[in-house]
């Protein structure tokens, strides 16, 4: 695809009408693009484990979690489509450009829930805020917002946050 005037190999959005949630990441990792699936690195695998823990996606074979999740009504996109080795390589201009592309996608498909894989994406969109979990009073394209616990969050803290998501989904 074209990203800010440059041709890049990236992951296609997994979006459709009728999804129950869309997971929004910062940008795809190089390994994810090489394998053709979202969240294939170690932190991404932790993200999928947490989605399973909250009951948002079913158990799946390693390497195809995004396909299984999409079939179960959970879509995927990134605010920045250019793959990198890490999010520190993403510029403020890219976040701004990505925001202008992400919002119309979410408006078009109108998922009831947007799950931010990493807090950094939500902070880029809304500015700083404390903690994670649901963001009361804030919406994106009419969607309720949930920020996943950070990948290095303690297991106890992450479990408590994920319980709030599981309770809402029940």
Describe it:
By secondary structure, this protein is α/β, with parallel strands linked by helices. The protein has a single domain, classed as 3-Layer(aba) Sandwich (Uracil-DNA Glycosylase, subunit E). It is built from 6 helices and 7 strands, in the order E-E-E-H-H-H-E-H-E-H-E-E-H. The chain has helices at 30-35, 42-53, 65-71, 92-109, 119-126, 155-169; strands spanning 2-3, 6-7, 21-25, 74-78, 113-116, 133-140, 143-147. The chain has a 5-stranded mixed sheet with strand order 4-3-5-7-6. It starts with a strand and ends with a helix. The mean pLDDT is 93.
In a few lines, what is going on in this structure?
The chain has 170 residues and is α/β, with parallel strands linked by helices. The chain is built from six helices and seven strands.
Give the second-level CATH assignment, the architecture.
3-Layer(aba) Sandwich
Characterize the main sheet.
5 strands, mixed
As for the number of domains, it is 1
Give the mean pLDDT.
93
Strand order of the largest sheet: 4-3-5-7-6
Instruction: Give the name of the CATH superfamily.
Output: Uracil-DNA glycosylase-like domain
Distance N terminus to C terminus?
37 Å
Beta-strand residue percentage:
15-25%
> Level of helix content?
25-40%
Cα Rg: 15 Å
Number of strands: 7
Structure classification: alpha/beta
| Order of helix and strand elements from N to C terminus | EEEHHHEHEHEEH
CATH fold group: Uracil-DNA Glycosylase, subunit E
């Amino acid at each position: 695809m074209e990203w800010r005037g440059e041709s890049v190999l990236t992951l296609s959005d997994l979006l459709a009408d009728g999804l129950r949630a869309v997971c929004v990441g910062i940008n795809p990792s190089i390994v994810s693009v090489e394998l053709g699936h979202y969240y294939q690195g170690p932190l991404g695998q932790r993200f999928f484990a947490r989605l399973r823990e909250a009951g948002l996606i079913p158990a799946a074979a390693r390497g195809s979690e995004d396909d299984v999740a999409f079939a179960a009504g959970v879509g995927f996109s990134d605010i920045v489509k250019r793959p990198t080795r890490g999010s520190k390589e993403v510029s403020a201009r890219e976040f701004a450009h990505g925001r202008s592309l992400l919002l119309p996608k979410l408006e078009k498909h109108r998922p009831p829930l947007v799950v931010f894989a990493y807090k950094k994406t939500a902070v880029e969109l809304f500015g700083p805020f404390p903690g994670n979990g649901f963001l009361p009073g804030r919406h994106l394209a009419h969607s309720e917002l949930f920020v996943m616990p950070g990948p290095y969050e303690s297991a106890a803290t992450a479990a408590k946050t994920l319980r709030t998501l599981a309770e809402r989904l029940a």
